[in-house]
């Protein structure tokens, strides 16, 4: 029965889909608490499980149908089926246009295929919807580096590292011009 409802959802017009999508679960307090714990961690190995917990919050989709789309897209991406992943994420975004992770995952697929220009607007949308999405901020930094826009990349990376000082990409930070090390 669940698969019949899911199939019906996928055949519904995009405007009707967006009207049907509920708001994503509100994990803002849990995310803020987790980020505070990450920032106070004394070692990277203490911060890593906390960072992983953030992904659990971000990938908690608004409802079962959205979760199925997100999970299917991530499975397709993990098996290098980027076309199917993109198509599934397009459907997720049509259904839930206010769900940041749909945009972040679609940007990741574009990044993996070297399409940095396509990744950037999705990252900007994910960040607009969720300004503390460290994954989207670091993804934006890496995407901007791929586009050769290093100054902007450093700005995005600094924003990400401010939220998570143990971020693995922190090693890509450069000292601002004119400052002594």
TrEMBL record:
SUPFAM superfamilies referenced in this protein's UniProt entry, alphabetically: TPR-like
TPR repeat feature ranges: 100-133
Which segments of the protein form a coiled coil according to its record? none
Tell me the first and last residues of the signal peptide. Answer: 1-18
Keywords from the UniProt entry:
Repeat, Signal, TPR repeat
Pfam families (UniProt xref): TPR_8 (PF13181), TPR_9 (PF13371)
According to UniProt, the name of this protein is Tetratricopeptide repeat-containing protein
- The organism encoding this protein is Roseivivax lentus
